[in-house]
Amino acid sequence: MTTTTAPTTERSYGISTMQGVWLVAKREVLTEARQKSFLWSLGLTVAFVVGIVLLTNFMGNGGFGGGPQNVAVTNAASALLPSELPADRFTVQNVEGAASGAELVTNEEADALLVTREEAASLTLFDSTAQPAQLGSSSELVIVTANGTNDSLTTAVSVKPDTFQLGNEPDDSGIRYGLGFLFGIIFFMGALGYCMRIAQSVVEEKSSRVVEILLATVSPKVIMAGKIIGNSALAFGQMAIIGLAGSLAMVAVGQSEALLMILPAILAFIGYFVLGFLMLAALYAGVAALVSRQEEVATVTTPLMMLIMIPYFAIIFFNDNDAVLRAMSYIPFSSPIAMPIRLIIGDAMWWEALLALVILVLTTLVCIWIGGRIYENSILRTGGRVKLSEAMKRQ
């Protein structure tokens, strides 16, 4: 007598995978967006970013009694000025020629030198990337500094001048620190805030047994995917609003050129940030399923929190260290911050950015798999904390 075994089939759910993901993601977005705390947080963050832009511009123009700048101006350049420089912001020191004015700037006796394009040709000048200056014919006036640019003087001169420096070292310290702080705070606030929300939502549904109702309709992987996609949409939308507000503020205060200069780094950061967020979100969703009480969330997520905080502080403290910045640009948890900075200062080749991106993509895929395995094996186990080794076993 021959016996036959019925073929094993996967469980059939009432709705398709895509419908399930959409419904869970929609629920996550609507639940969070309707809360006043979300709107207040977004509004305060936008106000903070706009305030930083306005304050930076104000300080650059000598705000808070910083004292007027001493500007050396040649007689020929003075004749080309449509109007006098504001006396409350600049002290004009007339010099006979470009050489004597450049000596004052080099000796730090003057903050900047204003010369004609013809006079500037007699000086050895460099642009902000330490390349020999190309004077061209875009302006008859040229601003010369010891190093870097002088935005306040550039804004004050009615006829838009070109700006060059006497030193042959690239002035990227401000860019390094500024972008490091900007990208770091965005990554820190966006990733930490929304990843923690994912973790708390997982535990809340597990402890209230809501997840058991959801599992009657969709699979655990669908619930996890919906949570990650929904919170990702919230995080990316919030970052887009903040970025737009900051960009408009920069345009409003006349920093359009600075915005265009850092735009490539911003676009690169967006790509790396999306992958970095998905990587961390999957891990947060997975480890949160190990516990059943909100009080235990901090315990299981602390190691992941360190993966967010360490890159943030490392970028702030080591932004001027080329070796550290280069190493951090290949580490998946810090590359979303480090690599865009290296790209904008010209310290990274195209293949380095591609290599870092490949490493980040592969790491993200591995983390999604790990987070999914932990979530699926732990979400229905209530009571005590589930051991990580048990959650990783194939069921």
Automatic annotation (TrEMBL):
Keyword Cytoplasm: no
Protein name as catalogued: ABC transporter permease
Transmembrane helix found in the keyword field: yes
Record's bilayer topology term: Multi-pass membrane protein
Keywords noted in UniProt: Membrane, Transmembrane, Transmembrane helix
Spans traversing the lipid bilayer: 37-59, 177-199, 233-253, 259-285, 297-318, 349-371
Matching InterPro entries: ABC2_TM
PANTHER family given in the database record: ABC TRANSPORTER PERMEASE (PTHR43471), ABC TRANSPORTER PERMEASE PROTEIN NATB (PTHR43471:SF3)
Organism from which the protein derives: Pseudoclavibacter albus
Location relative to the cell: Membrane
Span of domain ABC-2 type transporter transmembrane: 36-371
